[in-house]
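Fold this sequence, please.
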Amino acid sequence: MAEGAPPLRDDRRRLVAMAAAVLGAPWPHGVRAEPAAAPLRLVVAYPPGGISDQVARALAPPLARRLGVTVQVANQAGAGGAIALRALARSPPDGRTLVFAAITPLAFDASLRAPLPGAPAPVVPVASVMLTPSLLVGTPAFGGRRFEELLAQARARPGALRWATSGVATTGHLVLEQVCRAFRVSVTHVPYKGGGQQLSDALGGQFELLATNVGPAQLDHVRAGRFTPLAVGAPARLSVLPAVPTFAELGCPRANLASLFGLFAPGATPMARVEALNAALDQALREPTLRATLIGSGNVPTGGSAGDFGREIALAAEGMAGLLGPAR
């Protein structure tokens, strides 16, 4: 700037700063760079080590590329995912904080949904990410090889078998309740806060049965003979476990459940921001590497609009109410 020239006005300073950033040029003397875009915080509603944590961390890089911001992954476990979603409801509605969780907490916990049709909701669905079949395995502490042996042991020693899940009101817990009702057996529920510690304890034989989601670690342990696969919750047998029957085949269709996972934002997040996040997620799910990771571990990439995801949650809430009713 020539000596005696008037100083740059604030708006001109911003324009010069933006241009320098785009062109990769050094900042002109006296011009301060604008702060970088705030990072996006992606909170996993479960502990580290489970399939949800693995997928969220695999999703972060392609999501960051689409949005042009850093994506920071954190874990906030508890209450089957409800703790993270309740904290999300108190977060600023700027689209900078998202939670990756199964829809089960919203289906069970009415406080996380809109109190009346058309009323504001505490959290809003952004995008569906994956459908994850449930998997029931015997741990090293289980002395059987087939589902029928589980039933025989449960009848011979009511309450002696221990069945671990990721927490109360999770898909694994629902599967347990339906099995007990359908076959009139008693099994002890052992709820965890998520999949990581649960998996370690299962390998150590701390309980006999583990209801989990299909994922790379679970499949590795099955192939290595550390876990005995007993049943899956899916519309049909899985290509990665072709010899394992579904719960429907075993005579318990109400236990034939899978988990739908997705991203959620605070309730007052502007719709334009939700739609931008949805579009970025939909594009990320089309990346061959991410799709191969999901499909290879027995999961199904989903995607679709935020509205579609919301309708899935509403249907799940109705279905959960039916599952908790009297067994047919």
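Residues 1-35 have pLDDT under 50 and may be disordered. The radius of gyration is 24 Å.
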